[in-house]
Design goal:
The chain is mainly beta. Helices cover about 10% and strands about 30% of the residues. It has one domain: Single Sheet (Rubrerythrin, domain 2), CATH 2.20.28. It has a 4-stranded antiparallel beta sheet, with no helix packed on it. The longest helix is centred in the last third of the chain and has 6 residues. The protein starts with a strand and ends in a 6-residue tail after the last helix.
């Protein structure tokens, strides 16, 4: 399920909410002040690779011993 970010128009509180793609709402109730929170448009997230990499550990050709 995607995570959507919302910012409250009244208190400025920023929060995340899980929702299906077809049932998300552009405005929801703020959990802090119960005002209207608007959907925040974001650029998404990038993929971060950590460690030595899959090529070195998985796909490198094995040398015959």
């Amino acid at each position: 399920m995607p995570t959507y970010q919302y910012r409250c128009k009244e208190c400025g509180y920023l929060f995340e909410k899980f929702s299906t793609i077809t049932s998300y709402k552009k405005e929801v109730s703020c959990p802090v002040c119960h005002g209207k929170a608007k959907l925040k448009i974001s650029g998404g997230s990038g993929i971060i690779f950590k460690g030595s990499g899959f090529y070195i550990t998985d796909y490198q050709r094995r040398k015959n011993k």
